[in-house]
Amino acid sequence: GENVEQHPSTLSVQEGDSAVIKCTYSDSASNYFPWYKQELGKRPQLIIDIRSNVGEKKDQRIAVTLNKTAKHFSLHITETQPEDSAVYFCAASPKDTGRRALTFGSGTRLQVQP
Amino acid sequence: NAGVTQTPKFRILKIGQSMTLQCAQDMNHNYMYWYRQDPGMGLKLIYYSVGAGITDKGEVPNGYNVSRSTTEDFPLRLELAAPSQTSVYFCASSTGWEYEQYFGPGTRLTVT
Fold this sequence. Notes:
Chain A has 114 residues and is mainly beta. Chain A has strands spanning 4-7, 10-14, 19-25, 32-38, 45-51, 56-59, 62-67, 72-77, 86-92, 103-104, 108-113.
């Protein structure tokens, strides 16, 4: 079945620096790749997503890039702020599990130091 | 528009007890999901539903059961609770499986 690997598991940056989180997936038929942000004690919320017919998508300080050939996608956060501190999850929509459900990565805890 | 609601917020169960976690959504979404999130870990899919009357197993279904009699409600039943079921349970819904999932606030369950 689909395997989504996420790196790094923890990331600490200084306020104003950029942060990059990477995910790889195994099922080449996957075509939907969302990113969720989960603040401490809160529910996950979608921050950005990308489909396989697009190579890059940007929304203000966040962007996602997709490399279908290499089967990896990345979240880029520029000009980080303390409120960006949270756990970030990537996900993919595999076809080989037989389930109509996303597979999530294990999460990256991002800490932005003021 | 309340979105996805879950009850209760917190619950402590004794080993062997049973309970039902409630989930409801008012967005007319066909797809609904149950996840568990262990401390410091990711989201594991327990069960999901693609519409009223249709449910299917996720990655970790053992010890749980679900039903979907209406579009709005998707309860999760725990039978014979075990300490390994101590977790935070999230319900989510979406218009389709490759679309944004909206999560409920979660239920924190402790089994002792």
